[in-house]
Amino acid sequence: MNITLENLKKTYTSSTGSITAVNGVSLDIPENMIYGIIGRSGAGKSSLVRLISLLETPDEGKVFYNGERVDNLSKADLIQRRRKIGMIFQNFNLFSSRTAAQNIAYPLEICKTRPNVIKERVAEMLKLVGLEDRGSAPVSTLSGGQKQRIAIARALAIQPDILFCDEATSALDPQTTHSILNLIREIQAKMSLSVVMITHQMEVVRDACEQVAVLDNGKVVEQGLVTDIFSHPKSEVTKDFLSHISADASAVQQEKPSLLRWSEDGGKYTLRFIGSATGEPVMSRLSKKFDIEYNIRAGGIQHLPAEDIGTLITDISGEEGEVKKALAYLKESGIIVEEEA
Fold first, then answer.
1. Pick among 3.30.70.260, 3.40.50.720, 3.90.1150.10, 3.90.1720.10: CATH of 258-339
2. Alpha helices of the chain — where are they, by DSSP H?
3. Of 11, 80, 104, 304, which is most buried with the most CB atoms under 10 A?
């Protein structure tokens, strides 16, 4: 399901004033992929997902699913369209009075599905999320990861063509987050779903998404392939996200951060190495080839599904001409060079 947004705007008014949460957002979210929308708290991402998922109507702009406008549907058509949308949330939103299986069955009951079909579908969903033996378990006995797996199973029970994940891993520890993201990737590939992940965690974007849009103050400040965003960030918001990204799951288990900074001083140049370049002795060659010195302030590698992206934050000193030649050599070698203003 391809999703197209045209100049979406949404303003909320209260007794203390008004705030434009979504301000002219236009996006094309391709079908059959995991697409990330990232932003800080208050950036407008939750408001945007409510517009995309048809829970609210934009003040201005249009929403299209596969080229068909859907933000202006009649009430009856809107209900039918929403029944093909799955959603999972940070706090699971499960019924504590129901078992795991009964929670999965709930949306099917609302749609008046036949009992025998519900039973088969629930069993299928429990197997899909790896909890075949927990169907009769009360929700209170499930771990956080198991609750989110049941929430995913419930969202998929209706066989949606779009799955929205609104901060779906924010309440989970890193290892559980990694397992849930793996599950979502597997399900997306198996079911050819369009998945939209709303998050404030760059780690989620790194580990799960193919493309991403960065939101700030209700506007899209950057968008594109995740590998491009990591290797060549343009907005200050994205650069800040990348500078504070935590370790990936394997690094967490080894208690090693993926970007280690041992000096808060200096760091005029940020160098980004893509793919095989992350293993090359580039800086050693640089110092031998040119009359310069370098002082590395921080470094690390992000392991993206497509390829690795290495980062070095460093100072390069020497005569101006030699520094310029050294920087040119880095760029010719395929290294992305960002200079602090």
1. 3.30.70.260
2. 45-52, 75-82, 100-110, 115-128, 144-157, 174-191, 202-208, 226-231, 236-243, 249-253, 282-289, 320-332
3. 104
Question: In angstroms, what CA-CA distances link 280 with 105, 115, 230, 334, 339?
Answer: 54, 61, 19, 12, 21
Structure tokens at 80: 């039918």
* CA pair distance 176, 182, nearest whole angstrom: 10
How much is the pTM? 0.82
Fold type of domain 3-233 = Rossmann fold (3.40.50)
Q: For residues 167 and 182, what is the distance between their CA atoms, to the nearest angstrom? A: 15
Q: What is the pLDDT of residues 6-56, one digit of tens each?
A: 999 999 998 888 999 999 999 999 999 999 999 999 999 999 999 999 999
